[in-house]
Each structure stands twice: as C-alpha cells, then as structure tokens.
Amino acid sequence: MVLTHSPAMIIRAYEPSDLPELYVINQAGVPGVGDETETTLGKWLGLSDARVAVDNDGRLLGFINLLPPGTMEYTSANLRWLEAWGDDFIYVDRIAIAETARGQRIGEALYAAAFDAYAGTTSWITCEVNLRPPNPGSIRFHDRLGFREIGRRSYADDMKEVVYLARPLA
C-alpha cells in the first residue's frame, strides 16, 4: 500500500523484507536513535505503524516508527514517561534516514505522512531527542516542524538526558 507519493519518493508501510536495510540505516543513526539488534528492531517495527521512504529505484531512504500509548510489549521508559503525561498521542519511537539520503528532506516527508495519517484521530505527536549525548540537529529539525518541549528526563547515572517534545495535530 502506497501512503504518499512524489516524483522522487514513495512512502509506504513497512514490510518485513525491509528489515536488513532498515537495520543498517538505524545503526548508522546511533546515538541519535537507539542501538538495536536486527531482531529487536524488527520486533519494534512489527508492533507499530512503521512507514518507509523508498526512491524510484526501490532504495530505502529512511523510516519512521510510530506507536500508540499502551503498547506494553514496547519496553521503553520514554513511552512510559509520555503515558504519564497523557494518552491522546502517537509516539515517534524513531526516525532514521540513510546516510546517502540525509539533507534531502526525507525526514520532513516522513513526518508529513505521520501528521496526515493521525490528524483528526489523536491530538498530539510526541518524541524525545537526546540532550546528552547532544543532538542539536534533531532539536533544530523538530523545532522547525512545530514541536515544543513538554519535559526532560536524565538517566544512566546522569550520563544521558532526553527532552520530550510534542506537536499538536489538527
């Protein structure tokens, strides 16, 4: 099923055959995204509404993984923090772009597909971004898309910190 299409890119639903390439994309984005095994990444993508950007030649350009609150199989403390904040949201577990596709607005297109899909069904789209280790590019990116801070959490003996962000969906 094609979700979004442009002359240079299609955004479609995740297929299990995408996993090996998406795993490479994910791992190239660490520490901006969580370090996973191929098995755990496949588990998270299988629990969710994962969308994949593909170019006209079939190359995978990136992906966004979206989870609703209450997904108990997903063991992230970040989702639990957001559930304490509220229950009317969709959570961006991760967004990762292939190294060769960065700077081409793939992330914006993936988010636009998510905004369109969830507008009218939930009030907020949420995520977290690393403050320690710092990820200033992601902070700027999310700010441009209209996300605003709703909280912070330090963990790992104060060696890591995230900022929680939310954007209203109309």
What does this structure look like?
The chain has one domain (2-168): Gcn5-related N-acetyltransferase (GNAT) (Aminopeptidase). 29% of the residues lie in helices and 35% in strands. With 170 residues, the protein is of the alpha+beta class. The chain is globular. The mean pLDDT is 93.
Estimate nothing, just give the exact number of structural domains.
1
Strand content: 35-45%
Taken in chain order, the helices and strands follow as EEHHEEHEHEHEE
* Proper CATH architecture: 3-Layer(aba) Sandwich
Output the strand order for the largest sheet. Answer: 1-2-3-4-5-6-8-7
Task: Give the C-level CATH assignment.
Answer: Alpha Beta
What's the helix count? 5
- CATH superfamily annotation: Gcn5-related N-acetyltransferase (GNAT)
Indicate the structural class.
alpha+beta
Mean pLDDT: 93
What is the number of strand segments?
A: 8
Give the fraction of residues assigned to helices. 25-40%
Oligomer: single chain
Low-confidence stretches: none
